[in-house]
Design goal:
Number of strands: 3
Oligomer: single chain
Shape: elongated
Strand content: under 5%
Distance between the termini: 55 Å
Radius of gyration: 29 Å
Structural class: mainly alpha
Helix content: 40-55%
């Protein structure tokens, strides 16, 4: 403990003693209770960090990644901090096989070292490049504190270029708070995000999660174009037909918001690739024929960025959601 820390503790004790002198007999009866005190936690973390991948007193080795990078660690620290490592070590006792390393070929060495940093120090160093992989690792190894740090970091670092990557991770790993924050950002920056490279790489499940939002700040015609461009690239990458890669996504394109002339144009374009099922057009035409939207159907609800059209006056009461 540093001299500064000792000095602060001494002053605290003096204040506590003075307080006890003025307290009631009931309070004085509690003076013998134990009290948890903390010294300089940051200094402790710095000292513990020196043990990471340090051969001195280490009693376990890992071979990490395809390159089999050797990393040293300490069983007692890993098992105390992580139930997954504790179970791993229990299956492989120390006696007679101390020098036999654990092979983790599916993890990058830098991500493994970042996880060790958290395990040893309760702190972590993250970057935009590593945070998503560290989040996945924290979930795999049951490190809730590390997960929370990753989520906080990603929420604070949301940008046009990474919003879809973060949204993809949130959907994949079922991180609802992170999903909500990422969607909020996408809703406020829809056009820019939909033009990003990461948008073209999201899964259909993630795209559907985005398209369900009433708050997308983009007109439906432009959304249709963006979804079709996404599907075109996905079809090429996956060697599938256009309509096969977007079966669920197209169900969330709100055709009833379009004018009759816009619907006719889409129908003509659709004859080439059958991107949108015919029955979806039939539902949209029904809205125009009856001059009434289905209030229970979200497809009849305008989004925040929907350009007003004359027929919107008889759509859902939820038109132009706030």
């Amino acid at each position: 403990m540093s001299k500064k820390s000792v000095s602060v503790s001494a002053k605290a004790k003096h204040r506590n003693n003075s307080s006890r002198d003025r307290s009631s007999s009931t309070t004085m009866a509690k003076s013998g209770e134990e009290e948890w005190l903390a010294a300089d936690i940051e200094e402790h973390a710095k000292m513990m960090k020196k043990l990471i991948n340090n051969t001195e007193f280490s009693d376990i080795k890992f071979l990490i990644g395809p390159s089999r990078k050797q990393i040293h660690a300490h069983r007692c620290i890993l098992s105390a901090r992580c139930a997954v490592f504790k179970a791993m070590f229990a299956e492989k006792p120390t006696a007679g096989d101390k020098e036999i390393p654990f092979v983790l070929s599916d993890m990058a060495p830098d991500i493994f070292l970042t996880m060790l940093e958290y395990i040893y120090t309760n702190c972590v160093t993250l970057s935009p490049k590593s945070a998503l992989d560290v989040l996945a690792t924290s979930l795999e190894y049951g490190l809730d504190g590390l997960r929370d740090l990753c989520v906080d970091y990603l929420e604070n670092k949301l940008s046009v270029s990474n919003a879809c990557d973060v949204m993809q991770a949130a959907v994949t790993y079922n991180q609802n708070d992170l999903k909500e924050k990422a969607l909020d950002f996408i809703e406020d920056n829809t056009e820019e995000v939909f033009k990003s490279k990461s948008f073209q790489e999201i899964s259909e499940d993630t795209l559907v999660s985005i398209l369900r939002s009433n708050r997308l700040n983009m007109d439906e015609v432009d959304l249709y174009k963006a979804v079709k461009e996404w599907a075109t690239i996905s079809a090429v990458v996956n060697n599938k037909q256009l309509h096969e890669v977007a079966r669920d996504a197209v169900k969330n394109i709100r055709l009833p918001l379009l004018t009759p002339s816009e619907l006719k144009g889409l129908e003509e374009d659709n004859k080439k690739d059958h991107f949108i099922p015919v029955e979806h057009f039939a539902s949209a035409w029904r809205v125009h024929a009856l001059k009434e939207g289905d209030k229970e159907n979200i497809l009849s609800c305008c989004r925040r960025g929907t350009t007003p059209r004359d027929h919107h006056k008889y759509l859902s009461d939820n038109s132009h959601a706030a």
